[in-house]
């Protein structure tokens, strides 16, 4: 019996490794972006029945795991307030150093509000550079203004 979504994510990652699959192949199976599909496979998004079944076929998942992929998850996957994984910590560092700048510039351009993480997209690509390849990350979220009442 599968007890939670984390167990399904562990099953997906184990199958990915065992079968030599990529997240891009999982995305192709679902018809979604590799970024969104990966987030879903790691337990942060819910898939439709057809998408979950496609992943089940690709990864060889049991019916119970396919059912779990369709349940709205508890979002937020970091085990600690300050991440210890070096790559994730660098994102934490970016927000600590540049967060107030990002906030200030968004407010200057759009007014008082937030960038949505719900109406949101992300694109991660490798950018060739003679001094060493670069990681190009584009985040795009709908602006949601605060309302007066």
Automatic annotation (TrEMBL):
Domain of life, per lineage: Bacteria
Q: Which residues form a coiled coil?
A: none
Question: What EC identifiers does the entry list?
Answer: 4.2.1.104
* Molecular function (Gene Ontology), one example: DNA binding
Reaction(s) catalysed by this chain, per the record, are: cyanate + hydrogencarbonate + 3 H(+) = NH4(+) + 2 CO2
EC top class, in one word?
lyase
Under the heading Pfam families, the entry gives:
Cyanate_lyase, CYNS_N
Q: Which residues act catalytically here?
A: 90, 93, 116
What keywords appear on the UniProt entry?
Answer: Lyase
Q: List, for all copies, the residue spans of the domain called Cyanate lyase C-terminal.
A: 77-149
Relate the protein's function as given in its record: Catalyzes the reaction of cyanate with bicarbonate to produce ammonia and carbon dioxide.
- Give the PANTHER family listed for this entry: CYANATE HYDRATASE
HAMAP family in the cross-refs: Cyanate_hydrat (MF_00535)
Q: Which family does it belong to?
A: Belongs to the cyanase family.
Q: What is this protein called?
A: Cyanate hydratase
Q: Which organism does this record belong to?
A: Methylocella silvestris
Q: What is the lineage of its organism?
A: Bacteria, Pseudomonadati, Pseudomonadota, Alphaproteobacteria, Hyphomicrobiales
Originating gene? cynS
């Amino acid at each position: 019996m599968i007890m939670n979504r984390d167990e399904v994510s562990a099953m997906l990652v184990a199958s990915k490794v065992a079968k030599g699959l990529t997240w891009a192949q999982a995305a192709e199976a679902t018809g979604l972006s590799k970024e969104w599909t990966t987030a879903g496979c790691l337990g942060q998004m819910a898939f439709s029945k057809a998408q979950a079944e496609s992943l089940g076929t690709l990864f060889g998942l049991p019916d119970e795991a396919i059912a779990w992929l369709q349940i709205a998850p508890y979002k937020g996957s970091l085990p600690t307030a300050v991440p210890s994984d070096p790559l994730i910590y660098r994102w934490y560092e970016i927000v600590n150093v540049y967060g107030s700048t990002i906030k200030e510039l968004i407010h200057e351009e759009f007014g008082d509000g937030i960038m949505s993480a719900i109406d949101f997209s992300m694109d991660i690509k490798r950018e060739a550079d003679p001094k060493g390849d670069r990681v190009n990350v584009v985040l795009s979220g709908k602006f949601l203004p605060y309302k007066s009442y």
